[in-house]
Design a protein that fits this description.
single chain; 248 residues; mainly beta; Immunoglobulin-like; 2 domains; five-stranded antiparallel β-sheet; elongated
Amino acid sequence: MRSLSLLGVIGLTACSNMAIEGEVVDVTGSPIVGANISAAGAPTCTTTTGDDGLFELVCAPDVYTINIGAAGYLSETLDQFDASERQRYPVGRKVLIKIPIEKGLLRFDGQSYTGMEPGVVVKRAGGEGTSAFKHYCVAEDHENPVNGLKSGTVAFFDNHSDGWRPFRLDEDGCAYRMSPTTETTWGIDYAEKAEIETKQVEEGKEIVLITFEPGRYFIADWDKGFFTKVKNDEGETIGYSGFYVEVE
């Protein structure tokens, strides 16, 4: 870590300021040069990392939200960082993750956001009148690779999609059931149990937080109010896209 010069020490003491110091790197450990570090609410309290990825942010003592960001990377925020004493505050090494360029719903693998194995649900329909039905279910004769997850809140990256909806599959492997409640009105019966929260990163890019309990799910690619169709080379709909997930 770079040390303060004597002049810097004198200036820090005389102005009754504090200093927050740290390092910004990518997942390989390489320094990120020119990363921006700022204290929210203090417009003059900003700095950038040097060639070694190190930074020193000197501000008046206070409790701040510290923002760390760089072009092409997901930013990091230190909420309610207590720097209310006139002293030095080491925050250590901060690792920034590159913003993905791959489109779709991406899962974090510990180093980057990558695509999951895609799957489909198919429509089963039949009956007449109030006995009619449309069920959207995982079919055994369609390839549905398993995407294994741990229960709890999982962070995904959503890159330029129309949205996603996580459905818990019922005992028949169905995510979405429709049937008429009268001769003219259709009702919907499905078990959408997973909670979902989104945080916008920039235009068309969001962090999607989905909270799973153990079970089987289908995360549907949701196109303006309904499943997104998957078509064959002849233009026929053969299913609806998304990801089959098993949660431990």
